[in-house]
Structures are given as structure tokens and as C-alpha cells.
Amino acid sequence: MKSKSIKGKSTEEIKQALENSLADGFAPTIAIVFISVKQNRKAICELMDSKNIEVFGATSCGEFINGHQTEGEIAILLLELAKEYYTILFETMEDGNMDKAISKLANNALEQFTNPSLIVCGPGINQNGEHFEGEKLVKSLEKQLGADKLFFGGMAGDDWALKETFVFTNTQESNYGIVALALNGDKISLNGMAVTGWKPMGIARTVTKSDGKFLYEIDGKSAVDLYLKYLGKADKITEKNFKIFEDLAIEYPFLVERDTNETVIKSPTKIDHTTNALFMDNPMPEGTKFWFTQPPEFDIVEEVIEKAAQLKNDLDTEAEALLIFSCGGRKPILGPFVTDENEGLAKLWNTPMAGFFTYGEFGRVLNGRQNFHGGACCWVTLKENV
Description:
Layout: E1 2-8, H1 11-22, E2 30-35, H2 41-50, E3 54-59, E4 63-65, E5 68-70, E6 74-80, E7 86-92, H3 98-112, E8 116-122, H4 134-145, E9 151-155, E10 167-168, E11 173-174, E12 177-184, E13 188-195, E14 199-211, E15 214-218, E16 221-222, H5 223-231, H6 242-251, E17 254-257, E18 263-266, E19 268-272, E20 277-280, E21 289-294, H7 300-315, E22 321-327, H8 330-334, H9 337-349, E23 353-358, E24 361-364, E25 370-373, E26 377-384
Parallel strand pairs: 2-3, 8-9, 22-23
Antiparallel strand pairs: 1-6, 2-6, 3-10, 4-5, 4-23, 7-12, 8-12, 9-24, 10-11, 13-26, 14-15, 14-21, 15-16, 15-20, 17-18, 17-21, 19-20, 22-26, 24-25
Helix pairs in contact: 3-4, 7-9
């Protein structure tokens, strides 16, 4: 496998960058495209079509390659890979039946390869304009593929508009679909992990009243009152300044306990004043254990790189390409350190890299099982087995 990463502010810049990448005989078969909703996706796909390059694409909330981080632009990882080692799959969920779409996608992957591994992107926003429930997607995909199968990826973005996100291929596009790069796992190795960095603060809490994404009570007390007291903003949050609340919620989410000795980040997105409830990005059923959090300290970058170095050393392996799916919330919280995080991974693996800021991530924590994440840096390397 050979790889190169390119970037651009327009289709013309991508065209020139692509031509430059081909000048030495490089012959990519796949373009992994992370692109702002402001850019012309159709034109990029037509450009790749003209070079017989297959497209796996998702809209972004900021995008990056080695040495360059942008917002509102285009980042592409080009892969030169034998066509018998991969296939690009696409399914829509426009009838609202996620399980049906995932079952079809998983069966197609299993028909193509006995041991498939997947790079997956799904919608960041559902048909009601709310955060898509990535946890359901991961559980359904794991059930259909088998718990031993590897898949990494993220939920598409739309530059924080929170209105409509897209996944696409050369010929198909959907605001409510799934795109997957299915790889022959016996020929292409995937290695990676997800790391969040948020730390628990205080005692464990319990959800005592909830309904779907509406969280009413924590430890028998008003969830709204308790959360605003925790933020120190009880007298400042009103119905008119949700933006302040949303900014705080990104930085101070909940650290939720899983039944696998792991945790996941879940965030309030607004206060529903009609019901006096917190409206969450993902459901928190009654009985859920969680902690309030303190935001990541800047040593989280060191933690991400150290864990990656540990895995690299344990596996005694190299990489031929690197993809990073980083939560959109990491950028405002970590500031320039989020660039250090991405660049540090690319430097460690010494390989072309591309990634984007997501609305949710799919991957495994170190030595953990397949899961959905929020607030995580989720990275994966690709290498052809010789």
C-alpha cells in the first residue's frame, strides 16, 4: 500500500494537488475525502472519477492532514491499494430503519471478505435535527459483523451548523446514510484506539428519572438545578442564552459508566424549559451511573501519544497510512494542543495522515471492546501485510 495526503481550499487547489501527487507514478485507487459542507462535493467526486479513483467521503467540522489544519476546506488521504483487497459500501437509512441498512452493509462486507475490517462514517445529525445516536449504530454493526471484527470511524459534521451532514461516494450521497471502506482483514491490518482524557470529579451520580434524551432527575434532585450548580451558573443561564450553555456543556460533559469497565462522554445540549429537563446528545436511562467532569488538562496530548507508542511497541509494527477521527469538542477545549495531538500521532507513525473533527467517534479503547465515543481522539493505522 502507498499513500499520500493532500489538501485544498477549493476544487481547483485539490485538482492541482492531485496532479502533483501523481507526477511520480503514484496511482491511487481510493480517495478518503473529509470536506466542509461549504465545498463542492460533486465537483470533487467528478475529479476523482476522471482519474478512476473511488471515493469514501464525509462532511466535516474541520479537517486536517500532516502539517495543516483547516476549517471550511478539504483534506484527502489517497491510497494505492489492490482492488481485490477492498470495497466501498453505501447504505441509506431514509426509511428510518437503521438495523436494516446496517444488516445489508455488514452482509455485503462478509460476502466480500471472510474477515472484513471497516472504516465507517455515519450521519452526525438525525432526521429530527438532533444528534444521531451513534451508540445504536455501533451496537448494530457489532452484532451483524461479530464482536471480533474491527471498525473505526466517525460521525459526519457540518461546521457546527448542526443542521445537516452528509456521507457520499462517487455516485451516491445521503444526509442519513452510512459509508464504509471494507477491507480484507487478512491482507490489511488495522490498529488503533480511542482516548478521551476527561477525568471524573467528585462522587458517582445516578440517573433517577429520564425519558429518552430527556434527563429529569439525578440522585432524586432536579437535573437542571444540579448541573447549573455544578457549573456555577445557576443564576446566569436563561432561555435566551443557550449558546453560553452549549459552550459550557462541551467543556463539562458527563462521564458515563459502561458495563465493560469503560466510560463514555455524554453532553447536555440544552435546557428544555417546558419540562425542566436537560436534553442530552445521547440517552441516559434510569439507573445510569456517571460523574461530573473536569476538562482535560494539556497533558492529555502526552497521554494520547504515549498510549499510541505503547501499542506500536507492543505490536512491533509500522504504518502505511493514518486516519484520525477527533471529536469537534476537542478543538475549542484544547486549542492549539489539538494540533499537537494530531501531528504527534502522524510523527510517531511516520506516515501520511488525514482526519476530521467529528460529531462522534467509533473505535476501541486500549484493550477494550468496540464502542461509540464522544469527546475522543480516535485514530487508526492501515498497513498491508506482506
